[in-house]
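Protein of interest.
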Amino acid sequence: MEMKLKLLLLCSSIFALSSASSSPFEDEKNFYFHGPIQNFPPKETPQYGTPTNCAPSIPVTVNPPIVTIPTPTPVTVNPPIVTTPTPTPITVIPPIVTTPTPTPVTVIPPIVTTPTLPPSSPPFTCNFWKTHPTMVSGLVGWLGSLSRFGIPTMTGFNHDANLIQVLSNTRTDGYGELYREGTASLLNSMVHGKFPYTTSQVRESFVAALGSNQAAEAQARIFKMANEGRIRE
């Protein structure tokens, strides 16, 4: 390496000397003559070449730098520790069902009162039934109405008019008479085994006579005769 530096310094010195020797020619280029112009033969430009006494170039061998690659340190990756929680047992408590003790129901049988018939034997007239409401209620109850027998309620009365109200109606036409005598015939058919008409026959004749006032009046006369005992079986 020192040999190379010495050769470089020697060549630099030779080149500096050559440059110094060319300075007079440069001064001649900058000289101005003010007298008469004379023709001078052209000067020969000196030729400067590469000094022959320089040592030949020595090939330089450049060694590449030694690059040291560090050995990688192995990295150990520890897997995460997963802790599975222990599930808490769930205790299901069944609901407490309390069965209520049933209250005993005491069924009291209805008291059936057999109506006491008057000394006179049936059948009974409309006026008799109208003046003995206790006997009527004993047969059909206080709320008994003609609708329970399938007979329409008379016009002017409520649907649930009881038999006492129907027996006491004051209409003077054939319909009023039919409802009075027909109701009495229903009651007689229920208490008198020898009444000329059964309860079903009384009901059918009652409903059939509602077609007109004249038919109602005619049927009312038949029911009245049966209620007074003038018609026998």
In short: Helices lie at 2-21, 23-29, 126-130, 133-140, 163-167, 174-191, 199-208, 213-227.
